[in-house]
## 1
Amino acid sequence: MPTPLPDPTEADLTPPGAEEVVVLGRGVLGAVTPASGLTTTQRLLAEAVFDSMTGHRVDTTAPVLGPADFAAALAHRTLEFRTRIVQVMVLLALVVRPLTADVTDRVAAYAHELGVEEGMLEVAGRFAGGSLGLAAVDFERNGYTAEWHPDDARVLHTSKELSTAWEASTADPALAERWAALEDLTPGTLGRRLTEFYRARGFVYPGLPDSAPPLLAQHDWVHVVADYGTTVESELEVFAFIARANDDMRGFSLLAMVVSLFETGYLRTAAGLFEYSPGHLSESGMAVRVADAMRRGALCHGSIDFLRTDWFALAGHSVEEVREQFGVTPKSPATVAAGSVGPWEVGGISPFQVAAGRALADSLGRPYRPYGARAGGDHPDAVTD
């Protein structure tokens, strides 16, 4: 039987201290460690997440706690706290390849004892069973867009109703004109910076052929506000930030989605545009970068659904003003040292995007301007402002 939730008046709402982090680590690692032992990526990610989110180190060599004992240790914690812990378990399970049923079944046992229902655990179970197609369906059924309503599309400013959340809108001149009008804003404003972000990379404004789905385009504003580039590694960061800023627990599915695309490749496509490219989270420094993005998201003011934000209402404000409004904190020094870069820095753009930006500029009869961005490995003079 699940451990009952505490009376609201008696629930512990304080951040976990060093002793409790040891307990949390013993339970989380007890749930996710494969029969062959903890993988290197799991260990690095567990250490980075606990360090970033609690300020305390987790001991990955400590003896584990079973489901019942672990749930009993969290008897004073709320459902929200317990759910976040289960989500850490799911995250650490999703980086295992091949993912096996013994791991997902064990995480399910811990979730049951904690009284937590987490939709991405069902997805992980599908992955472990080899049912990748059904897993993709479960992402939509249990994830962020599970209760998407046409009214939610208001902030996307499309001229017609979208039949699905991730539907593209490639024949909407009014929408494209709204995006293009951002080019006339004052330099330094969020909207103007976003158009520079698009032009440097050859991205097409929503409403035009070959553009991203309007909902996915929402995350492009976050790249600018949160200071993340546009390589695959930066996509992992920006979605970790978006997922953790949202107190709706289904937001976690956005992080689960990009991990399944860009680390294990369990998902082949997602969000109407993304295609799988495995192995990026296990690269050097990425555990620190993703964990810090989670921390920064959690520190934002209140609960923020960045994909349902009306960015056009903020477009005329400076980037600094918008960061202050949302409570976006700087990256940690360790994250910068680990290679996290913004959209205007070396490594903040891919060679493919540079080429696309040049092609777009040529088609419009404009000189190409990357606004400071250079692909990693470029000679300093290879791309100029």
Note: The first strand starts at residue 269 and ends at 270.
## 2
Amino acid sequence: MRYYLEGQSEVELPASSVAELLSALAARYPSLSFHLLDSDGNLRRHFNVFVNGVHIRELNGLTTPLHPQDKVILMASASGGKGEAGYV
């Protein structure tokens, strides 16, 4: 993803929810948008989002509220070939 973030590994963006953060990220880095969001604006299935180390599926999904001190990590799923399980 660093390629789409113009070489940066971290970005600070103000957002009150995960959905708002993803929209702001896609707006700031348009080339990332296609890889991150589907045509309906939803997060693509192969991306995992963690807020302070907790997957958003264990929180409130895309409506998970964010605070200025929160750290959000976007991680693309990795999968193996020829019958091997993929691990993240």
Note: The first helix runs from residue 18 to 28.
## 3
Amino acid sequence: MEETEMGNRGSKSITDLHKPASHKSVIVKEQRVDGSWHNMCLRCILMGFERNYQVKIPSKQINKSRLYTSIATCHQSFIDQSEINPWFLTGFTDAEGCFTLSVGLCPRNKKMKVGWAVQAIFQIELSQIDLDLLKRIKSLLGVGNLLERNINGQQSIKYRIQSVKDLKVTLDHFDKYRLISQKRADYELFKQAVELMEQKEHLTEEGLAKIVALKASMNMGLSEELKAAFPKIIPIARPLVPNRGRSPVPDPQWVAGFLRFL
């Protein structure tokens, strides 16, 4: 961490007065005084997810009554929101979201003249206990569906968006509130595929090949089945995304979303 980012932090040395001078030990006691509203607001946002969080005074140098009032106001305003902050969703997606292109054989569907069905899917899957959070995400975007899944007795909920019309709403969100992790590269490729599908190009052999080339550079790449079916496909160059350390955090709410389950 650079010195300019450290804020008002210092160390105090305390000497044990009960021992002889030759045996006196020195204890280093760290002090942190982060009095800026930006830092306090971020602290409040993160507190908002812990119902029983006990408020601690970071330093005696900060007016206690003012701090309690600020934390209570910030915390209550977060709880009262019917919709989550857009930056929270972006940070949460950087940590938990998934952009997927599905390409599978569909020989019996006459509409699929190329014999392959293509789906673009954005989804977030969480435990059943986090259903309320997924409902709030769905409320923010206004599109998509919540689907229950049971694997070996483990209940989970998927928030999924897969129609091209609804995905356009998703693209609008992430174009405005941009991802900053390496997931942004998957998003950029995913966006190109959705735009091809919007133009119905996935129904042509040439358009299908473009989408497969995009899929080859996303996530885990192509399955063995797709590699065999499209042996001449050359993966599209994966977009470059700055390392996380070089990408400035856009908003405290992004941090709150990204750290939600870490």
Note: Residues 86-122+135-142+160-258 form a domain with the Endonuclease I-creI fold (CATH 3.10.28.10).
